[in-house]
Design goal:
heterodimer, A: 162 residues, alpha+beta, Ubiquitin-like (UB roll), five-stranded mixed beta sheet, 5 helices, B: 792 residues, Aldehyde Oxidoreductase, domain 4, Aldehyde Oxidoreductase, domain 3, 19 helices, globular, binds FE2/S2 (inorganic) cluster
Chain lengths: 162, 792
């Protein structure tokens, strides 16, 4: 057991973790942030995606101890400060990009990084980017639409700000 | 025009907000004070005698509280996992129904069969300790192939010497034989319907919590039907009366059938929490889900279609082997029989149909309903053999169907169903128009110029949803009624709480059911709360599967609303000093007909709870009504799907160029959600046809036991879909006129896709390819056919 500290959604958290404890189990168990999900044991489903130091990571594929001192962002920290859905979340709702909601946190965390690195992704680019996130409910059609729509909204907002 | 937020409006889903913020409440998110963790040691062998299970070292391991084996379960006198449906075979005898123990005793019968459970302070400690359990087993030959199971000489269960659970038939055998004797042409097709794993993204989880103060149990579980679990587990396994058992299925991360069934783990954690006087939680990891969730499909069929010279169908024969796996899961026996053979008329007037189904025990994971459950298998059978027939007699695939469509309703099929309504030309015309069927040959030629083989495949499905009239299913062997219940609680200030026995695990009931109630009561949807998934809060319920939620659960809600309005009219008549028969209720107002006198819905609810001026001699205070709705018939959604593919002959890779769905779901409450349901069904149907295959080797080892080997459809594997619903023929026997839409996509798409692939590669003399049409499968099929052509 070792004590580790990380900044999660802007707040500092400490907890105990064994050497073998995965980041996802630490986030869910020790920190009680259950929005990050576990959908597989082979690092394929992406239900567990969080951001570690700004990059999307499958939190089932890293040890908690390896993230000592890291900046972590989880789905719980994505919404706007006033508690409303941010642009990407709102687009998922608007375009019915979720059904059971289990894959959704990972989808949102993955897609938000995509929009950071590619402000106007094509359909093919979105599908390619999200191939590490499995959704069994939606058939991806509406997820793709949601990401495209969020990109357009963000571009519109950026243009308006100029 | 739909009213704002009412029936027909694409209202965005209210449940999304919590899911999008990471605030969903899934079972594994629940934790109870003092909670312990269970790890299940499962058999690594498919078939073996269990000689001894030595738990001494594990029991002494750090953090371990207790280790349980099958002997503990036997000693405690617990029942086996019950089966909810009894099939009577063709001789009038009941199916073979061997014990399905909570933990294996004496023998293990499939890889994944649970042998022992370690309960410890942490999950890691439980898992570590399980490695110290010494299991002495003697390997036995496994029965894996259901086609040879009968004559294999080995037995999964002593009760079934030839491994046959039942040999069943439906339809007029002699009449069908006569139809074949008079046929101008007979088409024969032998095929497999590949075994699948449902794989909802949330693995199963169960948390049992016994409270010794009032001898009360709570089970938190990933279930599609909490009341059914309470009934099966309480009455048949643990002997707990209903009032001492709460089953709570909070947010559930997808089900697709696999979370209908009562599973051993649910009974175990509930029972064990009493044994150790602490809550016990078990969460499957994905590898465990692969060997413990009920699988789906897995049929091998020989079908024959008899036609006259014009391509009119005269008769259909189907002889199917259906894999039950090692034990009978909750609904398993009814899937290949009453949910499959009864659909073999399809959209067609085939006058004679005969089906034989042999259900086989094998040393594999139990098989039960998966999205569509029997109906995808029936549709695949019909829609494949029709295309093969069309190919053989040189008729267009749309034309042969048109020549055989049912056009008068109600229609009694030769396989026990009565279709109430439908318009199959409408969906066929729509899909052909939308997908530009007429322009296909030009696209084929263009693709050929690029070295690609383009094909187009049609499928016209029908399904029976809204399961089901209780008396009917009772006669067919169901050990339960299949009605649905709802309570409408109108609160004093006029807001409404709706308790429904349907369960939402992705379907969006919190939104759509609120639309239904908003429409009926004329109050805004935000005044309406939908409560589901908790046996303590909801009067009763049979849950959600078989596209029944709106058709049956929604109808129960409508019935309860009607009762509320009827009572409200009495109160209004009193307050408005009018005759009750003069009160009309519309737009949220109780009005005296022909006058401007009216009372708002909320005024009446307040009067019901503050009955100062009230017809107290005539009616009770309060405004809360419960209704049970038992459907009069199944509902019959139907549609036509067209799939267009391009095959690369060099690699065998199939690319879906277009997938177009045209459905008749009757009336529609929320078009956005309906479209989403079709998308999801299409993805699973395409998954079955193109990618997914649950494979066992000859020793009964599951070869495709993780997402590394079992190909789940990814975003890159699927196209955008074109989904449309036609004006439609509303269901004639439920108050909403709805039919159900949850399974259509998974039913209609596999044959459309395979028909398209066969159409693309028919130039090699190919007239069939089994699912999944992976690159390897297509490439090999082309190679073999080319070699054969060269040799001829
Ligand atoms: S849980 Fe991390 S990828 Fe599946
Ligand atoms: S919404 Fe259910 S898995 Fe994606």
């Amino acid at each position: 057991m070792a004590k580790i500290t990380m900044t999660v959604n802007g707040k500092e958290h400490s907890g105990e973790a064994e050497g073998r404890t995965l980041l996802v189990d630490f986030i869910r168990g020790e920190l009680g942030l259950t929005g990050t999900h576990v959908g597989c044991d082979t690092s394929q489903c992406g239900a567990c995606v969080v951001h570690v130091n700004g990059e999307s990571v499958k939190s089932c594929s890293v040890f908690a101890q390896a993230c000592d001192g890291a900046q972590i962002a989880t789905i719980e920290g994505v919404q706007n400060n006033d508690g409303t859905l941010n642009v990407l979340q709102a687009a998922f709702q608007e375009h019915h990009g979720l059904q059971c909601g289990f894959c959704t946190p990972g989808m949102v965390m993955s897609a938000s990084e995509l929009l950071k690195v590619n402000a106007a992704p094509s359909e093919a680019e979105i599908r390619e980017w999200l191939k590490g996130n499995i959704c069994r409910c939606t058939g991806y059609h509406n997820i793709v639409k949601a990401v495209q729509s969020a990109a357009a909204t963000m571009a519109g907002a950026a243009q308006a700000a100029e | 025009m739909p009213k704002d937020g009412g029936i027909g409006a694409s209202v965005v889903r209210r449940e999304d907000t919590r899911f999008l913020k990471g605030k969903g409440r899934y079972t594994d998110d629940m934790n109870r004070p003092g909670q312990t963790y269970a790890y299940i040691l499962r058999s690594s062998l498919a078939h073996a005698t269990l000689n001894n299970v030595d738990t001494a070292a594990a029991s002494a391991a750090p953090g371990v509280i207790r280790v349980f084996t099958g002997e503990d379960i036997t000693a405690a006198g617990l029942g086996g996992v019950p089966c909810g449906w009894q099939i009577t075979d063709k001789h009038g005898d009941p199916m073979k129904e061997p014990l399905h123990p909570i933990l294996a005793v004496g023998k293990v019968r499939h890889v994944g069969d649970p042998i022992a459970v370690v309960v410890a302070e942490t999950y890691e400690q439980a898992r570590d300790a399980a490695e110290l359990i010494d299991v002495d087993m003697t390997d036995l030959p496994a029965v894996v192939n259901m086609r040879t199971a009968e004559t294999s000489g080995h037995q999964v269960h002593e009760e079934a010497p030839d491994n046959v659970c039942y040999d069943w038939e439906l339809g007029d055998k002699e009449g069908t034989d006569a139809a074949f004797a008079n046929a101008h042409h007979i088409t024969t097709l032998e095929f497999i319907n590949n075994r699948l794993v449902a794989n909802p993204m949330e693995p199963r989880c169960a948390l049992g919590d016994y409270d010794e103060n009032d001898e009360h149990y709570t089970l938190y579980t990933t279930s599609q039907n909490p009341h059914v679990i309470r009934l099966l587990m309480g009455a048949f396994v643990l002997n707990i009366p209903e009032h001492k058992l709460r089953v709570y299925a909070p947010d559930v991360g997808g089900g697709f059938g696999s979370k209908i069934y009562h599973y051993a783990e649910e009974a175990f954690v509930t029972w064990a929490s009493k044994q150790i006087r602490r809550p016990v939680k078990w969460t499957a990891d994905r590898s465990e889900a692969f060997i413990s969730d009920a699988h789906g499909r897995d049929h091998v069929t020989k079908a024959e279609l008899a036609m006259d010279a014009e391509g009119k169908f005269l008769g259909l024969r189907a002889d199917t082997y259906a894999n039950m796996g090692a034990y009978l899961s909750t609904f398993a026996p009814c899937v290949p029989t009453w949910l499959h053979a009864t659909l073999l008329a399809g959209q067609y007037t085939t006058p004679m149909v005969h089906a034989r189904v042999r259900a086989m025990f094998t040393n594999t994971v139990p098989v039960d309903a998966y999205r569509g459950a029997g109906r995808p298998e029936a549709t695949y059978l019909l829609e494949r053999i029709i295309n093969k027939a069309a190919q053989e007699i040189g008729l267009d695939q749309a034309e042969i169907r048109r020549r055989n469509f049912i056009r008068t309703f109600p229609y009694d099929t030769p396989v026990a169903l009565q279709y109430d309504t439908g318009d199959y030309d409408a969906t066929l015309n729509a899909v052909m128009e939308t997908a530009d069927y007429a322009g296909f040959e030009a696209r084929r030629a263009e693709a050929a110029s690029r070295g690609k083989l383009r094909g187009i495949g049609l499928s016209c499905y029908i399904e029976a949803c809204g399961i089901a009239p209780s008396a009917l299913v009772g006669a067919l062997g169901a050990r339960a009624g299949l009605y649905e219940a709802a309570t409408i609680r109108v609160n004093p200030t006029g807001s409404v709480s709706v308790m429904t026995g349907a369960h939402s695990h992705g379907q969006g009931h919190e939104t759509t059911f609120a639309q239904v109630v908003s429409d009926a009561l004329g109050i805004p949807a935000d005044q309406i709360e939908i409560i589901h998934g908790d046996t303590d809060k909801i009067p009763f319920g049979m849950g959600t599967y078989g596209s029944r939620s709106l058709a049956v659960g929604g109808s129960a809600i409508v019935k309860a609303v009607d009762k509320v309005v009827a009572k409200g009219k009495k109160i209004a008549a009193h307050l408005l000093e009018a005759a009750e028969s003069d009160i009309i209720f519309e737009d949220g107002q109780y009005k005296v007909a022909g006058t401007d006198k009216a009372k708002a819905f909320a005024e009446i609810s307040l009067a019901a709870y503050v009955p100062h001026n009230y017809p107290i001699d005539e009616i009770e205070p309060g405004l809360e009504e419960t209704a049970f709705y038992d459907p009069k018939n199944f509902t019959y959604p139907a549609g036509s799907y067209l799939c267009e593919v391009e095959v690369d002959p060099e690699t065998g890779k199939v690319e879906i160029v277009a997938m177009t769905a045209s459905d008749d779901f009757g009336n529609i409450v929320n078009p956005m959600i309906v479209e989403g349901q079709v998308h999801g069904g299409l993805a699973q149907g395409i998954g079955q046809a193109l990618l997914e295959n649950c494979a066992y080797d000859e020793h009964g080892q599951l070869v495709s036991g993780s997402f590394m080997d079992y190909a789940m459809p990814l975003a890159v594997d699927l196209p955008n879909f074109v989904v449309e619903t036609v004006e439609g023929t509303p269901c004639t026997h439920n108050p909403l006129g709805v039919k159900g839409c949850g399974e259509a996509g998974a039913i209609g798409s596999p044959p459309a896709l395979i028909n398209a692939v066969v159409d693309a590669i028919k130039g090699y003399g190919i007239d069939h390819i089994d699912m999944p049409a992976t690159s390897l499968n297509v490439w090999t099929t082309i190679q073999n056919a080319s070699a054969k052509q060269a040799a001829e």
